[in-house]
Amino acid sequence: MRSLRRTLDRATVRTVLVMSMSVLVIGASYGVTAHSAGLDWWQIVVIATVVLAGSSEFVFVGIIAVGGAPLLAALAGLVVNTRNFGYGLSMGRFLPRGWPTALAAHLINDETAAVTAVETDQRRARAAFLLCGAGVLVSWPLGSAIGVAIGEIVADPASLGLDAAFPALLATLAIPALRERKTLCAALVGGAAAVAATPLLPAGVPILCALAGLAVIARDSGDRRGTPAAQGTPVDHQRQEYAP
C-alpha cells in the first residue's frame, strides 16, 4: 500500500476514495433491493463478494424478484457482464503476468476501467487499477451488508435517489477523455446504439450495444495503417535509391 501511495498522486487517490464511497452507497441500494427480493443476508454478501459486478447482480435480483428461475437470472447476469471482455482487452496489458492475472481479473469492472483509462504510464495505471479494485472489493460487499441492515426500514431504494449517484460519478470521470475527437465519436456512436436498443432489448443488455463505438476506433486505426506515410510512398523509395 505504501508503494501505491508513492506511485499515485493525491488526485488519483482522492478519486479512488470518492469512487469507493459511491460504490458503498450503491452497494447499500443493492442490499436493500436483494433483501426485498427475499434473499438471505449471507446470500447477498456472498454474491456481492464473488460476482463483484453491480449491474449483473441487479439484473439477477430483479429476475428473482419477479419469480424468475435462478438459472435464468444467472444467465442474464452473465450476458450483462460480458462487457468485461472489452475491459479485459484494454486493461490486460496492465495486469501482472502468470497466476496473479486470474486474481487481478476478478477486480475488472466499471470502476477500475474508468480509473485506469485516464492513466498513460503503465506503472501508474497498474497501481490505480489495484488500488481501485481493492476499494471496490471492500466497499461493495460492505455496502451490501449495510443495505441488508436497513432493508426493513427502506423498502424502495429508488426513493432515496441512490441509483443516480454512481452513473453521475462515472460520467464525471469520462468527460475529460471526450476531449479526443476519436474518443468522442466512439462515445456518440456507442451511446446512440445503446439508446436505440433500449426499447427492444431486456434491461442491462442495451449497454452491450455501446461496444459498437469500438468500430470507430478500429476503423481509424486501420486507416492510419493503410496511409502511404505508414507504408512508404514510391517517391520515398526513389529518393532513398538515388540519394548520393
UniProtKB/TrEMBL annotation:
Pfam families, per the entry: AzlC
Sorted UniProt keywords: Cell membrane, Membrane, Transmembrane, Transmembrane helix, Transport
InterPro entries: Brnchd-chn_aa_trnsp_permease
KW ATP-binding (keyword) present: no
Highest taxon of the lineage: Bacteria
Membrane topology: Multi-pass membrane protein
Intracellular or extracellular location(s): Cell membrane
Region (Disordered): 224-244
Listed transmembrane segments: 12-32, 58-80, 128-151, 185-218
UniProt family annotation: Belongs to the AzlC family.
Protein name: AzlC family ABC transporter permease
Organism whose genome encodes this protein: Gordonia tangerina
